[in-house]
Every structure is written in C-alpha cells, then in structure tokens.
Design brief:
- The complex is a heterodimer of chains A (486) and B (146).
- Chain A has 486 residues and is of the alpha+beta class.
- Chain A is built from 16 helices and 17 strands.
- In chain A, helix 5 packs parallel to helix 8 and helix 5 packs antiparallel against helix 13.
- Chain A starts with 8 loop residues before the first helix and ends with a strand.
- About 5% of the residues of chain B have low confidence.
- Helix content of chain B is 34%, strand content 21%.
- Chain B contains five helices and five strands.
- Chain B has a single domain, classed as HybD-like (Rossmann fold, 3-Layer(aba) Sandwich), CATH 3.40.50.1450.
- Classes of the chains: A alpha+beta (486), B alpha/beta (146).
- Chains A and B meet through helix 2, helix 5, helix 6, helix 7 and helix 16 of A and strand 2, helix 2, strand 3, helix 3 and helix 4 of B.
C-alpha cells in the first residue's frame, strides 16, 4: 500500500511545537508548549459590519463552530445595547447545548476514552477511536454516532444551514421554531439523553472500575494545582450560555466574579521571552511565573474548572452523576487533570437534559424572536462557557456597527499556563538522566489532551490532523533529540 | 448513481477554501456539502450516497494548483495518529467503513489540490489555485460520467 508523506508542520510555523530543555544531568529543566493565537482573525474582523461577524468567526474552528458564533452574537447584542427576547435566548441556549452534546461526544470517544481503553503505554496504532470500537463493540460505536447525529440535526434546524450557522442576529434569532420542529427536537433530545447516560456507563466500565486507570487518574503525574474560572448562576450551578464568571483559588475559596468588560479587572497577560504569545494570569494575585501550587496565579477553564467552581449541575440526571463524582473525589477542588474527561461526560448528560427541557417548553415557538435595534453604542463583550471553557469576544465599533477593534480570548489561551505545567511534569517523569523513554510523545499528549486544545484549527488541509513536534535541547541549548507525531 | 461532492476548507483562509469553491461550482449538478473540518461530520455527510467526491487542500510542497487523486485506502494507511482535537480524514473514512459499511459510498475519490497560502486571510484563492477550481470541477464531471 502506498504511504503518503505529508508534512503539515511546514505550514503551521511552529504551532503545536513543544520545546524541552535538559539540565547538565540530562533531566528536564523546563518545557514549553506554544499554541496558536487568534490575532489574524481579530485583524480580519476590522471593517466588518457586526451582523456579519458571527458568521465569519464560526469558521475559526470546524469543531468549535457553535461557540464562537454564540459568543460573537452576544457581543453583538451588547454593541447595540439590546437585550434579546426571552424566546431568542431560549433558542440560543438550545443551540449551544446541542453543540455541547455533539462536541463532548466527539472528544470523549475519539480522543479521551482511547487513552484509557488501550492504556497510556500502548502504541498509537491501537490507542485511537478504531481501537476503542474494537473493545466497546461495533454496535455501541454505531449507536453513539447515530445519537450524536441527532444533536447535529438540531444544530442544522436551528442554525439555518449545515455546520456553520447563519440564523443569529443582534437582539435575537432570525428564524423561529415551528411547532413541528419543536416536536422533532423533543424526539431527538431523547437520543441525546440516552447518549449521555450511555457515555457515563462507558466511562464507568472502562475507567472507574479499572484500578490501574484510577491510579493514573488520581496520581501525581497528571496533576496541576491551579486556580479555576467558570460560569455559574445565582444558585452556584454550572451554566453555559449565561451567568456570572466566578474565580476560585487552589483551595476552592472565591477570588472574585465578573461579567462583560469586568474580565479586564481579573485577567492580565504576560509577555514571555521564549514565546511570541502572551500567557494569561490572575491580575489580583500578580504574575508568579509558569508554576502551579497554592501561590500561583495561573488559572484554568473548561469542564474540570466548571466542576470545581460550581456546586453541581441544574438537571436531575447530571445532578446524580455529580454527586457520585463528589463522593469518589471528595470535597474541594480536584486538580487531577484526567478528571476533565469525567466532568466532560457528566456535562454531556447535563446539556442533553437541557436540550430536552428547552424543547418541552412550548413558548420556544413564540414569534418574538428579535428585539428592535437602535444605534450602536460602540462596544460590546460576549462571554459564554464554550465547550472547552470561558470564551470572550470583545468588539469596539463605530455608530454604524462597523468593527474597529476586536479581542478574542479562547479557552486554549486561558489554559496556556496549566498546559505548560502539565507538559513539563509529564516530560520530567519520562525523561531521566538523558534517557528519553520511548512513547514519551504519548505521555505528553495525555498531559494536554484533557484540555482539548484547539491548535491552529482555523486551517487544516489534508489529512486534517494537528501535528505536534517535540524538540529536546541539552544544557548548552543544542538539539538533542526530536520526536514527531506526524 | 446518487453522488455527493464534499468540499472541505475554511472560506476565509485564502487557498484553504479550494474545496468549498469547487463544491459550490458543482451545485445543481450534484448534491453538495461543505465542511470546515474533517471529523465525524464527514461520515454524516456521505452516508447514504453511492459515490462521493471529496475535495480539500493539501500541502505536499509540489507546484501550487497541482491536483492529486487519492483513494480512501491511501489516506487510511496513516492511522498511527491519535490526534489532539479532531479526527483526520483517513480516520473518519476508516471509521465510517467499520461502522456503517452498507450505507457508505461504494466509490470515494479524494481530489487534493496543492495550496500556496492557507495561512493568510482572504476570500479568494491565489492565482494558481484559483485556476485549479474549474479543472477540479471538470475532472469530477468526467469521473462521474465514466
């Protein structure tokens, strides 16, 4: 069989690049992980009417398609100083939750579970989705994909076209839901709830019942002690579309809360000499370096952060699953990053139940889907909980609503510090006295995969994979060894 | 034969839009679908069709605008990758065959076009890639007639 040699690194220009530096004894002194930035999109949006922005930013990532769209349209509301109608809010929330189901499903089955099923020491030839299917069975795999398709169908119905939606407008949504569509969504939502329950069962049988894997999950190799940021409602329950952004420290104590432009009071960015990228940290603590621990100022976002920040989920089945997690993991923040996958599975069920609840509400078919707009007030911030964590879209416009400046902070950016710590820790565990253990790239991948990093996903080209290269340097800064996953 | 043309790419990243532009040019002649990524949605898009043409950009270092025709087997040879964020096209097609073989197209052809610039923002392709749009579309018409 012909093998096609494709080297996409030439086009990614350092994205997905890990540099590991050894000391005189050949042990890891430091490791750095460079991720993509979105400055290109921010520049591209300048001069664009605010109404066009959500459609454009939905192309930032083919995977995260629903979240940039939703955050952007919320920022568009704020630019016009308009509150969307209650029906429009329900439709947007339905849209976002359906996106949560299909995205969490893809991440867990394609990327998360395979690490556990075959084990971290297994080669990548079996540690992938195909390997997972061989273990859980073809029928289960087929069922999972069919049920996930129900979420995609809901997105298509609401968004106005497949994959990249067009229906959201400042102040509302341009396409109302008919009673027939509501009934169809309600029927589809049963698939989603079943998918959520089934996913937790798979996690239970594959991970929780396996002593070795639980040692890995709760051990120190994959542990990063940091602060957390997530969105909650006034009952302190986890929210995705709307709520208050809450920050806690490593012990679970509240540092503060913000909404809208308030993020500027809490989040600062540090320019680092080894990277052209900035690293966010908590302004109130002050820069403490790329270090974890109680004194650190790094914070992370995403499913584990939401689990740590909130006091549970707002639907019955997810609440039960949360209580089981708490019983197993104890009180206080959990810093073991492989628990991200567990929280992700619970959120899948939570989002599925929310889709069902919203579809049961007959008022969602009302025709008050758009609030009238006045002149633009010139600045707006839209914040949601994206699947991977807090997503901030901040625009400044002129009075006609033409974008003059844009600032986008995505989950992978928030998580940059903790990802660096996780990668360094894994490298320290698997490189000893100059000996680079075979399979280190797998172990390093496991260190950043829980964060579900979005690397250069604005551009893909064939074969559609995201390459990672690890360069190891000796204490003199000379190249020592290079590892690639492509 | 029930046929779909699937264009994959980002519409605002210069040559990365090649797949989308080819699909749009063939709208009306075939069912078309556009995706911006290569994950599980690929399976959803092509299930139920007898034949699928998948058009995407590729970066092999050859002359920009060069068209390469690949079979799924050629892409599926590379499964030793676990990914960070998504499934690559070969893995998605492999999964489709493993789970839904009776519903998968009997014939899949991947048309990959060498890109010159898929990093900078722009709604138009560079000239050599732009010229390839009609050539790929014409090639699909010929393939579908054979």
């Amino acid at each position: 069989m012909k093998r096609i040699e494709i080297n996409p690194m030439t086009r990614l220009e350092g994205h997905g690049k890990i540099s590991i530096f050894l000391d005189d004894t050949g042990n890891v002194e430091n490791a750095f992980f460079q991720t993509v930035e979105l400055r290109g999109y921010e520049r591209f949006l300048r001069g664009m009417p605010i109404e066009e922005v959500p459609r454009t930013v939905s192309t930032i990532c083919g995977v995260c398609r629903g979240v940039h769209y939703t955050a952007s349209v919320k920022a568009g509301d704020a630019v016009y100083g308009v509150e969307p109608t209650p029906t429009a809010k329900k439709i947007r929330e339905l849209f976002l939750n359906a996106h949560y189901v299909e995205d969490h499903c893809a991440i867990l089955y394609a990327l998360g579970f395979p690490d556990f099923v075959a084990g971290p020491t297994a080669g990548p030839a079996v540690r992938n989705l195909i390997g997972l299917i061989e273990i859980v069975g073809v029928e289960t795999g087929r069922t999972v994909l069919k049920k996930r398709r129900s979420a995609v169908r809901i997105l298509e119905m609401l968004g106005g076209r497949p994959i990249h939606p067009v229906a959201a407008v400042p102040g509302g949504w341009s396409k109302r839901i008919t009673e027939e569509e509501r009934q169809e969504i309600l029927a589809l939502s049963r698939d989603l709830v079943e998918l959520g329950q089934m996913t937790l069962q798979v996690f239970d049988s594959v991970v929780l019942k396996n002593k070795d894997y639980m040692e890995l999950v709760l051990g120190d190799t994959y542990k990063v002690v940091c602060n957390y940021a997530g969105t909650v409602d006034d009952q302190n329950k986890v929210q995705y579309y709307e709520g208050t952004q809450k920050i806690i420290n490593t012990r679970g104590e509240e540092i503060g809360r913000f909404q809208g432009k308030g993020y500027l009071d809490f989040i600062a960015e540090r320019v680092l000499p080894w990277s052209y990228l900035k690293m966010p940290y908590l302004k109130k603590i002050g820069w403490q370096g790329v270090e974890d621990g109680e004194a650190g100022s790094l914070y992370c976002v995403g499913p584990l952060a939401r689990y740590n920040v909130g006091s549970g989920y707002d639907t019955p089945l997810a609440r039960e699953a949360y209580e089981a997690m708490r019983e197993a993991l104890g009180p206080g923040p959990v810093h073991n990053i492989l628990v991200y996958h567990w929280a992700r599975a619970v959120e899948l069920l939570n989002a599925a139940e929310k889709v069902q609840q919203l579809a049961m509400d007959e008022r969602i078919t009302s025709d008050d889907i758009r609030a009238p707009l006045d002149e633009a007030v010139g600045e707006g911030v839209g914040i949601i909980e994206a699947v991977r964590g807090i997503l901030i879209h901040h625009y400044k416009t002129d009075k006609r609503g033409i974008v003059e400046d844009a600032n986008l902070i995505v989950a992978t950016t928030h998580n940059k510090g903790p990802i660096n710590v996780a990668v360094r820790r894994a490298a320290q565990d698997f490189i000893k006295d100059g000996k680079v253990e075979e399979g280190i790239i797998n172990m390093v991948e496991m260190a950043y995969r829980p964060y579900d990093i979005c690397l250069a996903c604005a551009t893909h080209t064939l074969p559609g994979r995201q390459p990672v290269q690890i360069d190891i340097y000796d204490s003199q800064g000379k190249p020592y060894q290079t590892l690639k996953n492509f | 034969m029930k046929t779909i043309v699937l264009g994959i790419g980002n519409p605002v990243l210069t040559d990365d839009s090649i797949g989308i532009k080819v699909a749009e040019q063939l709208s009306g002649l075939f069912d078309i679908r556009v995706l911006t990524t290569t994950g599980l949605d690929v399976i959803d898009a092509i299930l139920g069709y007898e034949r699928a043409y998948i058009v995407d950009g590729v970066s092999l270092g050859v002359e920009p605008g060069t068209i390469m025709e690949l079979s799924p087997e050629e892409l599926m040879a590379d499964l030793e990758f676990t990914g960070t964020h998504n499934l690559h096209l070969g893995a998605a097609l492999h999964l489709g065959y493993r789970l839904f073989r009776p519903e998968m197209p009997r014939e899949i052809k991947i048309l990959a076009v060498e890109v010159k610039d898929a990093v900078n923002f722009g709604r138009h392709c560079t000239p050599a890639v732009e010229a390839a749009i009609t050539r790929v579309a014409d090639r699909i018409k010929i393939l579908s007639a054979s």
